Amino acid sequence: MDRYEKALEKMSEMSEEQLSTLIDMQKKRICICKDCPSYNQCMTENKEGLFCFLGKSSCDLDLIQCKCGECPVHTNFQMKYGSYCMEGSEEEQRSKEN
Ligand code: SF4
Ligand code: SF4
Predict the structure, then answer these.
(1) Distance 74 CA to ligand 1 centre (A)
(2) Tens of pLDDT along the chain (98 residues)?
(3) Angle at Cα 93 formed by Cα 53 and Cα 42, nearest 5°?
(4) What total of structural domains would you count in the chain?
(5) HEC string of 15-39?
């Protein structure tokens, strides 16, 4: 089990309140999507982010570039994929491997 899978396991054990606090905090403090050229006004208005865990954006978007490779979350959780706002979460993209 790698660190991404361990994080998913921990998150599944949290209460809804704990999880939503954690997600809000990570979106604000760590996720660097807001600095990405693909991050658009719709995503800003919906306060979206952390797509690597939460999955695709609900907004229409043009993928210009992805900064996930430079994000500490990506490194810390041993993630392999990117463009999460368009392609889905790390978990979803891993599940397509098989
Ligand atoms: S890896 Fe990408 S989607 Fe995940 S927190 Fe970092 S910038 Fe946001
Ligand atoms: S997931 Fe990647 S492409 Fe999408 S907004 Fe975040 S950094 Fe940009």
Answers:
(1) 6
(2) 999 999 999 999 999 999 999 999 999 999 999 999 999 999 999 999 999 999 999 999 999 999 999 999 999 999 999 999 999 999 999 999 86
(3) 55
(4) 1
(5) CHHHHHHHHHHHHHHCCCHHHCCCC
Instruction: Kindly state the helix (H) or strand (E) to which residue 58 belongs, with its residue range.
Output: none
Q: How far is residue 78's CA from residue 73's CA, in Å, rounded to a whole number?
A: 8
In terms of residue numbers, what domain contains 87?
A: 3-95
Nearest protein Cα to ligand 2, atom 2: 66
| Other residues' Cβ atoms within 10 Å of the Cβ of residue 5 | 14
**86 C-alpha to center of ligand 2: Å?**
8
